[in-house]
């Protein structure tokens, strides 16, 4: 415990020394979320993380999350140093959509507007016309539909399916998936709902369609958090990374939360409902990256500029 406190103290001192701020996602360890809050940084969904980084007056941003979040921060703030505790912290959606293959895929469907999820590499964003997050995907796709545009969507197949259902548009879809959300099981969720009949079901749209169909609320991490805070219900079954419980309990301590089942026989396998890449962010490697001012996100300038266009289009649309 003392060792942990010493680590936290050193991190705080290094943040001051380098005029640095922490930009953390809701899925990272509680301790990192608490540190970000205490030190004037932010804990947020991927859309707010991007906005915060762009508006921050810090010289250094330390992104506690996964690599695409660090890359987006760097795209928006090329003059800032963007560090991450571990650059190997990636995302199965990013890994499953390599830029070269994606460029070939897009070339097969010319005259389509290319819309990609934020959970992609800078190179993939550079190919795209629009970037969206689960926080603004529906509004942006509805807007494109109204303009009569034909859409290529990548990479998450479940999110793509949800967008199609909600907007009534058909898209040419890449077939990627999130290894965490893909594991939520509808049959077991049904059983858990029977056990807790009063509970409302909150689902991130990266989950399979059968799970999304059972939801009372579908949305980004931010939307799910708001639901716990603002809905009068006392119990919630949550189908997303369980580390979001830190923030949910902080904002609504009187609410009872259950992790949606990822395993058979109604088991709520906590370790399954947690992103292994988010889990690569810890106190020690956070301290080390601030000590060493590395590892740092570096982007090819041409890629950065192209990717920035599609990210900025999204940010301007969401304002
Ligand atoms: P949000 O955009 O909802 O924060 O989600 C990011 C993510 O990686 C979900 O798995
Ligand atoms: Fe990617 Fe899924 Fe992890 Fe989110 S939870 S960062 S989508 S692997």
TrEMBL record:
InterPro entries: NadA, NadA_sf. GO terms for cellular component: cytosol. It catalyses: iminosuccinate + dihydroxyacetone phosphate = quinolinate + phosphate + 2 H2O + H(+). Keywords: 4Fe-4S, Cytoplasm, Iron, Iron-sulfur, Metal-binding, Pyridine nucleotide biosynthesis, Transferase. The keyword Cell inner membrane does not apply. Pathway: Cofactor biosynthesis; NAD(+) biosynthesis; quinolinate from iminoaspartate: step 1/1. It is an enzyme of class 2 (transferase). Its EC number is 2.5.1.72. Its main location: cytoplasm. Its cofactor is [4Fe-4S] cluster. SUPFAM superfamilies: NadA-like. It is found in: Cytoplasm. One of its GO terms (biological process) is 'de novo' NAD+ biosynthetic process from L-aspartate. The keyword Transmembrane does not apply. GO terms for molecular function: 4 iron, 4 sulfur cluster binding; metal ion binding; quinolinate synthetase A activity. It holds the Pfam family NadA. Catalyzes the condensation of iminoaspartate with dihydroxyacetone phosphate to form quinolinate. PANTHER family: QUINOLINATE SYNTHASE, CHLOROPLASTIC, QUINOLINATE SYNTHETASE A. This is Quinolinate synthase. It comes from Thiomicrorhabdus xiamenensis. The lineage of its organism: Bacteria, Pseudomonadati, Pseudomonadota, Gammaproteobacteria, Thiotrichales.
